Amino acid sequence: MAIATVPGAGIDVGSPAPAPVDARRARRNRRLKDNLTGYAFLIGAVVCFAFFSWYPMIRGVVMSFQRTRAGETTWVGWDNYERIINDPSFWTAWQNTLYFTVLALVAGYAVPFFLAVLLNEFRHAKGYLRILVYLPVMLPPASALFLFKYLAYDPSDAGLFNSILKGLGLPTSQWMQSTDMTMPAMVLASTWMNMGGAVLIYLAALQNIPGELYEAAELDGAGLWRRITNVTIPQTRLILSLMAMLQVVATMQLFIEPLILANGAGSEDSATSVVYLIYQHGFFQNDLNGAAALGVIMLVALIGFSAVYARLNAQQD
Amino acid sequence: MAQQSETRSLVSFAQLQRGRGKVIYWTLLTVVLILFTLVFIGPLYWMVTGALKSSPELAQTPPTLWPADPQPENYSEAWNRLDLAKLLFNTFYYAIGALVFQLVLDTAAAYALSKLRPKLGNLILGLMLATLMIPAMVLIIPQYVTVIDLPILNISLIDSPFSIWLPAVANAFNIFLLKRFFDSIPEDLMSAATMDGAGPMRTLWSIVLPISRPILGVVSIFAVTAVWKDFLWPKLVMPSPETRTISVGIYAFSGGTPQNVVVAAAVIAAIPTIVFFLIFQRSIMSGLTAGGLKE
Question: Membrane-crossing residues (chain A) (predicted)?
Fold first, then answer.
């Protein structure tokens, strides 16, 4: 490029020697200008990331080793971590959260996949069924949870669920008032609210499976079940494993369900989740530093989980 | 013939048209249609009618399927008592603002990362995508502390709509979606515009944006619904009764308000999103799968 400009420039200006330098400088200026334009387009988003994402990440770790009292901030080493681990609800919160995650994984992972496989077979009313599954996802969670709290989980027989159970001749439940039912009831509400997205994502994946694979399997004499296990599942494995990970990370952040359905902790701490404990410490016990420490613990746990999960998945391939 | 061209799924189409297959297909379809309607519309029906019942009727056993003595005044009471007009306006205002900020700043950033590619662009992209690994709730405390006292500027954004709008811009997923779409715009088209003397701004405005309408629609829908559905963040940064969002307002009032009135408010809060969904359902559902999950 530089060489090509030399003759032209030489003839025009009549002094061949400085031309390449000029050209190079012009090019450098141009590149600088291009870079500056690029940064100008980036600056708004970068500032927002810096203030509200990157900086808080560092700040979270830093403040978990500090203590602010009456405007005075001091370094306190692992004190915050010790205090938060010794909170009587600490282990209960983890236990509850893990229990919720496992239950939600069973319900929120298997059910949407089954529904997607079923819906994918229908040649009628496709649009209607899709709109239906996704409808609850659009509700503000607070709205949906008040519906569950007041109208469905009413512990008397006036509630929707108890009257259905009674109508079917089944024993009724105390729902949120019973420590055993608290978690399953929260999983039920949460699955109803959130399942739609997963169903639609699975449906899209199912539609990408080439029809010939089923054709071939059928010619080989594979029945319905064999076709599911030998074609459908292997063909959607990538998305299935990705969704499982995303779901675990999402359900571990359980918060609004206990807050609204169980007024936070629930009876005998049966609903306390890790994020609810963060919220408690941060905003009711005036302990933002302890809350930040719990946030860091949770971050390490989730990243650890993701790393192990990704590794196991890679080994399988 | 048209049916033949459709790719087959688990069960072949021919099988579903003959004898036993046909019977099973139609029975299953009917059962699923009824069950889905009951499971997904049923609760909404229960909610709308539950809010019409009087308090004694709400506590009655067995519950009535249709309110014996409908009380539409529950809705007007919810509207007045919770000042729902104000709450709806606030939520709407935050959602639209977040949408505008995201559309302008995230589109510009994605365009820079995809087409202008300044030095360090990839590093910046990497740092942005890294935030996707951090679960939102984990950052809530340091984010709150940052918003109370913004570093360098030393101002507090509490009760200011910027505390919702600006963090919304830091959305790596949207930038990723936009960038990926921009990447698919052929380079020839871009260089043709440059040859015609169009600067980057003009190329973005008259070439890139018009082609990108579908993805801009998807990002807009995500932006609006995210603000409408959010709860903990607006609860923390918009604590005053005057600045609350609708979800937070209903929660705040739920303690001292009769159940039927709270449910009526919850119904009103849900109407805008439901209407929004029914209008944009096609784009919303296609947008969900645009998230790069298939490739």
Answer: 36-55, 98-119, 131-152, 185-205, 236-256, 291-312
